[in-house]
Structure formats: structure tokens, C-alpha cells
Fold this sequence. Notes:
The structure holds two protein chains of two kinds. Chain A is α/β, with parallel strands linked by helices. Chain A has helices at 52-60, 82-88, 104-110, 124-136, 152-165, 182-199, 210-216, 234-237, 240-247, and strands at 12-19, 29-36, 41-45, 67-72, 75-76, 89-92, 170-173, 202-206, 219-224, 227-232, 249-255, 262-269. In chain A, the strands form three sheets. In chain A, strands 6-7-8-3-9-10 form a six-stranded mixed β-sheet, sandwiched between helices. Chain B has a single domain, classed as Orthogonal Bundle (ABC transporter involved in vitamin B12 uptake, BtuC). Chain B contains 15 helices and two strands. Chain B has helices at 6-28, 37-42, 47-82, 95-108, 111-114, 120-139, 148-173, 178-186, 194-213, 215-222, 225-230, 235-257, 263-275, 279-303, 312-330, and strands at 141-142, 145-146. In chain B, a hairpin with a 2-residue loop joins strand 1 (141-142) and strand 2 (145-146). Classes of the chains: A alpha/beta, B mainly alpha. The A-B interface holds A 21-23, 57, 60-62, 81-87, 89-91, 93, 95-103, 105-107, 109-111, 113-114, 116, 118-119, 121-122, 127, 144, 148-149, 166 and B 1-6, 9, 80-81, 84-86, 142-144, 213, 216, 219-220, 222-224, 226-227, 229-234, 272-273, 276-278, 280, 335-336, 338.
Amino acid sequence: MSDPRAAGDPILSVHGVRFRHHGAAAALFEDLSLAVAPGEFLGVIGPNGSGKTTLLRLLAGVAEPAGGEVRLAGRPIRAIAPPERARQVAVVFQEARVLFNFSVLEIALMGRAPRLGRWGMERPEDFAAARAALLEMDLAGQEDRHLHELSSGERQRALIARALAQEPRIVLMDEPTAFLDLKHRLQIYAILTRLNRDRGLTVIATSHDLNLAARYGSRLVLLHRGRVAADGPPASVLTAARIREVYETEARVERDAATGAPYVVPIAPVR
Amino acid sequence: MPPLTARRLWVSIGLLSAGFAACVAVCASIGSTHHTLLDLLRQAPGGETAAATILRIRLPRILMAALAGAALGASGAVFQAVLRNPLADPFILGVSGGAALGAFLATAAGLQALAPLLPVREAAAFLGASATVGSLFLLSSAGGRLLSYPMLLIGVIMNTVYLALILLIETVVDFTRLHGVRLWMIGSIPIEGYGLISGLSVLLVLGVAGLSLSGRDLNLMSAGEDAARSLGVTVERTRLVTVLLASLITAAVVSVAGPIGFVGLIVPHAARLVFGPDHRLLVPASALTGAIFLMAADTAARTVMAPTEIPVGVITALCGGPFFLWLYRRQGGGGYFE
């Protein structure tokens, strides 16, 4: 097997995308371009309002750009039938409120919907995939609990299990570890890293935690005011000068002796 | 509750259908005269009066109540999912009120008399319901997203305005008939001919089947619009189709029985407790539960104070209000409704 990263054509890309939020005075993206190769583990970082979530929604095909194009494996994403797109791209959104008394297992089974005929019931292999995803997310004993009874961390893991049950080629995550404790934070990144390494799963995750992004991402994209301010290996993106400019924060950037990844120690906001 | 399987789907629908048939039989045997279905079957002396009472008076009314309950139950389940709001129901959202205003205007303007063979009143009710839903979507969306609570507020306001308009017009046009309109506005089941009943039945069976077939999409939409999109649902299309179908069946029964409250709100919640949240089962289960509930309520309405009749809307509200409060407390004071 060749290294999937060596594969030439991008699996997901945006080309000259323009996007303006409804009612906003100025466009968020004027002319954004970005390409993600199959098998990449991409961290998207940037301050609040820099466009991370919107970029993810555009990449997922759930938001439409006003101009330019998003392509999935070379095809315009809007030309792909939604169920087919959903078999390839799974998304974990940050604000995810599920109404009604759905159980954890039912939530994970929702990830199988793109693989079922419109009116088909879930098959044994769908239950197997959903349970395997719950097992990975440490929720195997919780499958009958209702989502609204869970802690926010458990809820987040249930929603990640739904994405894993989709068995996608690409997974997009908006702040996947925002509500999680230390253990589950590392656990989720470890699982993503394993799926990335073993199955060539392409991972694109936004994060406010620069150190987590730097440790697990093979590449970081730093967004600033709707533009790509830096793009490359973590060590080249995370410099003290850039953090001062983009995050308006004085920081020391060290190197983690164990992982070799850059390690940001914030000091004080720039006045 | 374990996830839905084909077996549980069909067993539940089978049991509910059996319950429905039993309820029809029991309700047909209760009334101010002591005729029962058994008299009819035995062809006992006096069987002709039994037949007349049951077949011409009780049964049409029972079936009409069943149709109204089924339509309101199913559309309540659908509105709650599509609008992502557990408080949504055709009555609260003003869909019933819009249908009532439409039907009332068509009658007051004498349009039905112009084309007696066409379903003019029903069409006007559907227009009123659709216009209400259209305005709800327009007024409560921002940036392509529906805002759940503003929508509820707007629905409540529209509903109040509609009912006020109906009363105002009726007062101006024909003061003496006000009492009849008041009864209709709180909902009461009339005795209709079998022609209308069969027509409505066909519409309802098709409508509920169509809505049930969107069940999985409704499940995914309960997880959020973006989540549903990312799972392959064409949200706009699903929303349009299901809301139109739900409005159509609501309008059809409201034009006949008036805007009956609470059925569309409490029946889906009760069905969800018993049958689980999966809309592939919940939609048909809400239809059958709604039918049973309204048949029983209407039987109570015509018998408990006989010969005086209580409007069925009074019974549904009196049963529904306390039930809803109990449900709300049972769900931990609203964690489920957040």
C-alpha cells in the first residue's frame, strides 16, 4: 500500500469561495481556497469569528457558497445526491440538540440512514456498526439511555459515535472536544488518529486548543478574518509572531519533548 | 426502549388497529338509547330502531371523530418534528385557526352554495391552513433557519386573531347564529353522510401513509437541520412535503369538526411515551391513538350529561391540560422540552 498522503488529487477542496452570513454587512469569505488530500489529519484553528465553523459547513455541503465551488473527490459537492455525499462525509456539529426521547443507540443508528433505502429498516449490520461505534466511544453500556439524560461529554461522544457509524471517508468535526474532560479529549483524538492511520480516514477538525491541534494534526490551517493566514505543518504555523498577530496574545512556543509537536504557552493578551 | 424493528412496527400497528376496532364497537353501543351492536347483530325485536340509531346516528359521528383525531394526532407528531418544537401542534400554531377561518369565510360568503358538489369549504380551509403555515415560515425564519420559539409565539398570536375575526364576522353578519359558531369553534363532531366520511377516510389514509414514509427523515430532523442535511436529508423538500400534507389533513377535518384543541399536542407526546420517538411508528401510532382518544372523548361528550351535549373540545382540553402538566413534571420539569 502506498501512503495515502501521496495520492495526488484532493479529496475535498474549496475554490474561490465567497460567503456572507445572512444579514451581515461584510462577506466572511471573499475568495477562499483550500485543498485537503485523502488521508490528511487537518486541524483548523483561528480566533472566534474567523470562519472555522462556516468553513466546515461549506465543506460538509450543508451551507451553499455565494460564489466559487466546493468539490468532493473532484466533483462539485452540490451535484452529488445528499445520501451519496453522506456516505462519504460525516459531520459532528458543535451545537447539537436532539429533540425527543431518542436513546443513545438510536442516535448512533441515525448514522446508518445514508446506507439504507429510503424506507428500509436497519439491518443487523447497521446495528453492528452502531454498536461498534458506541464501543469505541466508551458508551457500550449506555445504549438505552436517553440523550437528554447524559452529561454534555457523553452526549458529544454519542454524536461522534453517530459520525463513526456512518463509516465515512472524511469526518468533519467542529470543536469535537469542547465539552470533554482530559481523558475523553485525548481518547477522541487517539481514535481519530487510529482511524486516520489504519483506514485512511480523512479528518478535518476545528479547535481552540492549539496544543491538541498541533499534537494530532499533520497539517494546520490558521484562519484569520476569513483568510488563510498560515497553512502547513504545525511547527511552521504556530510561531510566537503569528500568535501575537492573529490571536492578539503574547505566547511562548516550545517543543514538546515527548511528541516533538510545538507547544504554545500563552502569556498575556496584547494590549 | 430498544430501537424500532420491522416486527415491533407491525405488532404495534396491529394492536392499535385492534384497539381501534374495539373502541368503535364499544362507542357504537353507548348512547342515550340502550341499543348495542349486539342488538343489531342478533336482529332482535326492535332491531330496526337499533339499526337506525347505530348506523345513521352513532356510527357516522364515531367515524368522523376517529378521522378528526387521526388527522390531528398525526399532524401534531409531524409539526413537532419538522418545526423542532415539542409544543407545536396544529391548534397552537394557528393552522387549525387558519383552516377554520377559511372554512368559515367560504360558508359566510355563500361560496359553497355556488358549487354544491365541489369541496369548496375544505379547499378554503386548506388555503387558510397553508397561508398560516406560509406566514409562520416567513415570519419566524432568519438566515435560512427556523426559529422555534418565535414561531410558537407568532402561531399563538395568529390563532387568537383568527378566532377573533371569526367571532367578529359572525357578530356582524348574523348575530343570531353566534351560538352555533361558538360551539363549532371549540370543536364539535357533526353527523355527516357516509359519502363525506369515505372521502375523508381515503384522504387521511393516504396522508398518514405519506407522512409515515417520511418517518426516518423526521427522525433525522429531530437531530437538527444541519445534522439532517449531513445525514443525507434534503431538508427543504422534506419540510415542504410533510408540512403541506399535515396541513391538508388538518384542514380537511377542521373544516368539518372545527378547531379541536389539545389532541395534536398531547396525543403525540403520549404515543411517544408508549411507542418511542421513531417517527416511522410514531406517525401512524399517533393517528390511531388520536382516533381512539377522540372517539372516546366524543362518546363521553354526547353521553355524560345526556341529553345535553358537551362540546368535544371541552372534554379534550379538560383531559389534555392535566395530562400535559403531568407529562411535563414527569420529564424532570422540562429537560425534555428544552
